[in-house]
Amino acid sequence: MLVRIDPESEAPLFAQIAASVRADAAAGRVRPGDRLPAARDIAAALGVNVHTVLHAYQDLRDEGLVELRRGRGAVVTAQASTLEDLRHDIHDLVARARAAGLSPDALAALVKEIARDR
Amino acid sequence: MTVDHATPSRLALRRFVLVAVWLPVVLTALGVAVQLVLLPQMPATIAVHWNAAGEADRFAPAWTQPLATIAFGLGLPLLIALTSLPGLRRGERGPTYRLMGATAAALSALVTVALTWTFVMQRGLDSSTDAPTVWPALVAAFVAGAIAGAAAWFFQPREESTDAATLPATPLALAAHEQVLWMRTTSIAQGAAIAIFAGVLVIAVAAAVAGVTGADPLVVWLLVGCAALLLVLAATTLAFHVRVDDSGLHVDSVLGIPRFHVPLADIESAARVEVNPMGEFGGWGLRLSTGRRFGVVLRAGDAIEVLRRSGKRFVVTVDDAATGAALLEALVSRAASRP
Q1: What is the distance in angstroms between the Cα of A114 and the nearest Cα belonging to chain B?
Q2: Of B179, B180, B182, which is closest to A7 when you measure between CB atoms?
Q3: Parallel, antiparallel, or unpaired: how do β-strands B313-317 and B293-297 relate?
Q4: Cα(B146)–Cα(B144) distance, rounded to whole angstroms?
Q5: Cβ count near A99 (within 10 Å)
Q6: Contact criterion met (CB below 8 Å) for B98 and B159
Q7: How many CA atoms lie within 13 A of A82 on its CB side?
Q8: What are A19-74's pLDDT values in tens digits?
Q9: Which residues in B lie closer than 8 A to residue A35 (C-beta atoms)?
Q10: Is A92 exposed, middle or buried (CB count within 10 Å of its CB: 0-12, 13-18, 19+)?
């Protein structure tokens, strides 16, 4: 799995880590049933606090992308394949928005807004 | 005139088949023919094993010898040929394939000469306990093996490894201050793990049986030692954590030892490659290969290959190797562009 964080970004580190795991699922790099690396291993390699990684894992559990089990760590659920299925649609959407001069942030805000209306 | 470098020579494939398949077929056929002609003159049981002093100590019915000659003199070379041929057919070339062909030829000559010679020297004996010493047969077998191996090596054309032209991966897009980590666990196929542990179990049971039946304590301890050593070697190489971060490439056994680390500063380039364990490394596990290449080879297929500044290469088989190699390339070029 690929985890990317930018300390200069405004988004909190835990949110960036969670977003990375989501992107991994969408790209098919993590699959249902895969066990994510231990939080302390990721924390040590990235030089962040272990609680930051655990925070990200807990958010992903609340979303339903992973299950946290004592002794087994974070296991990816079937939701990962749903994200992978959505990837092509999202790519198309991003490409069309970009062609129309709409930034990814504006597109994301629009998606959120429309999702709330319905 | 132009030379098409993209098409690997058919010559290497044809000659490999000649030395690794047809030579063993002919040698074994000759050996078995000689044995079958002499079978009526043989004692009912013949010596098939000699102790360290060269005296016969184990016996079997005479008719088992031709079967053993086919099983080992032809079976072992064919096993080598079958594991190497898929790679050669795909167009892979290199000194490892040449070595595999030479090994198949040498094994066949060694086994056939050893079994046929020990068979022939016992013809007309009243009892196999009178079997003469084994040394001349053994020396002849090793000489025959060495000659066949060397001949097969030089008969096959010299070919550069096809993987020498591996292209570095396209680097991942990376921001200046971004911290990136790629992690993946790689393990051997479940079937292979079961086979290894079954092997260890067989040796352990053999040790227990030897202990209970009052065999030489040295034999018992040797078997126990073998089982323990195999268990440790197998357990530490079953699975590895592979990690790419700004300190380089880490490959650590799940049990902690052994660990391998290629520092970022040592890396010239990184690529995703397809590994054929038998053809390129002669098997699975922690492997040295030709071309200063070391591999953590747990299965066939996707692998990260790192070219070090020293010219040595490090290979690890792992899923999603393309992402790992792309990240390494990006980290290397980012480190190089920093003041």
Answers
A1: 31
A2: B179
A3: parallel
A4: 6
A5: 8
A6: yes
A7: 8
A8: 999 888 888 888 888 888 888 888 888 888 999 999 999 899 998 888 888 777 88
A9: 185
A10: exposed
Q: DSSP letters along B117-146, please?
A: HHHHTTTT-S-GGGPPPSHHHHHHHHHHHH
Residues with Cβ within 8 Å of B232's Cβ and at least 6 positions away in sequence, in order, are none
Instruction: Confirm or reject contact between B239 and chain A (CB < 8 A).
Output: no
- 8-state DSSP, B25: H
Q: Which residues of chain A make contact with B183, given a CB cutoff of 8 A?
A: 1, 3, 37, 41-42, 45
Pairing of strands B293-297, B285-289: antiparallel
Average pLDDT of each block of 10 consecutive residues along chain B (339 residues)?
52 90 94 91 84 78 89 89 82 79 92 91 79 85 93 85 63 82 84 79 80 74 81 82 90 86 88 80 78 84 88 88 89 81
The pTM of this model reads: 0.63
| β-sheet bridge partners, residue B272 | B304
ipTM higher than the 0.85 cut: no
Partner-chain residue, chosen from A4, A37, A45, that has the shortest CB–CB distance to B178: A4
